[in-house]
Write a structure and sequence with these properties.
Number of helices: 6
Number of strands: 0
Order of helices and strands: HHHHHH
Structural class: mainly alpha
Shape: flat
Radius of gyration: 16 Å
Amino acid sequence: MYLSCSKRSGESCAFAENKEETLQRYLDRVSQLIIEKDLINASRSENNLIVDAASDVIRARTLSVLRSFRLDSDRRASVIFFLIETEVLHSLKVSLDGANLRGPNLSGANLSAANLEHIKWDEKTQWPDRSRFQEATNIPEALKQQKGL
């Protein structure tokens, strides 16, 4: 858990535990989908309807969990890093279109091949260096200017 419950009031501790359970449930469900359907390997074949459907499900779950963490940039960063480390963004080409990326530290993230259309970010968002945006699509003009892309 991100903060020890011994340092929190009972109500805020329960809230933090709920957020942690939400994150863990998301990670477990998406992991299960990736493994059971062998999505990374299946994504290498053309016209795979299962991969397309799974990508849509992962995107919907991702946007939903990112919305639920609107005030929690650490957990939003955990979701994005999970998608990168499991190759979901690159291999399955799951779109981050419309994702709330306000505030998280993404400085170590490799956003290559990510669809960044309509993302939301702010001055607190910490971005990776330019090289980690290779092949990213639909990068907002303001972000291109900010990163010198």
